[in-house]
Amino acid sequence: MKKSQLNANPVGGRNLSARRYAGSITDVAGIEVGHDTETRRPTGCTVVLARDGAVAGVDVRGAAPGTRETDLLQPGNLVQQVHAIMLAGGSAWGLDAASGAAHWLEERGHGMVLPVGVLPIVPAAVLFDLVVGDASIRPDAAAGYRACEAASSKRPVEGCVGAGTGAAVGKIFSIASAMKGGVGTASVKVAGVTVGALIACNALGDVIDPETGAVLAGARSADGRKLLDARRALLRGKAPKPVLAGTNTTIGVIATDAPITKVQAQRLALMAHDGLARTINPAHTMSDGDVLFALGTGRAATSPGMMVLGAMAAEATARAVVNAILAARGLRVGKLHLPAACDLHEGAA
Question: Domain spanning 23-345: which superfamily?
């Protein structure tokens, strides 16, 4: 890895922002991203647009997912392309944001062409953030529409925005000892082909630096000032707190400009989960609803093959998770305090 991509300072160094990876999912030709961030409480939604259509696949690894239109992405099913992916907070309520994106796309003539008009295909996945503030406030169709209005091919804002606004990580021993999650993005380029990832990280487990194995953010000690290291704590016999299924989730989108088939898109989504496993511990639990989508815009002339694309997808995913955590900022809502990685590592928690 080039030092220009990741600062060589160890975790715990004061300049954590310098450790963030370069690149974004919008480096993939044909992809745009827009956020809508709720101002009344910490929640929101994030749309990944592929206006001209993209081959798509999905892989669901968490045991408690909240999704829309994932069945149609199975390789044996009819629909071959989608026009957007919606990621949202608000748990199952947040799925409504996808309807707003569908209306926005329809107004602009983007979708499957039918005799009666166009039909935009907008799969979606949601994460649980209802414990952060007033649970009656959640993303809706209007929020999804606004996210599309805000979309562009510029590098998306990261951290506590869009679907990551109310995200938290390290909840395995209680939300009170957790830390702030968020949205992150990154990309990898090989032989003229780009693979990018955008991840909303709201994991039950800790977030790990994949280069050093050090914990970046997660469950904290009783005094709130130190990282507990959930993996080691579990192996020592510390019991996790009972957690309601589905109250944690890491969701995201992987995109490439390589020409891929629907079967290959599903495989790309599956392989991208390796990036979650490198950076989240534990991952894919019974209380997480981890879902990754994969998009192929086909704008590149050639493909390096699935072995390389899969490795790129896992790497971009891991980098995007790290960026989400390093871009996050601490949050206080009522009695709940979720410090960010920058707070704890700089001694300000």
Answer: L-amino peptidase D-ALA esterase/amidase (3.60.70.12)
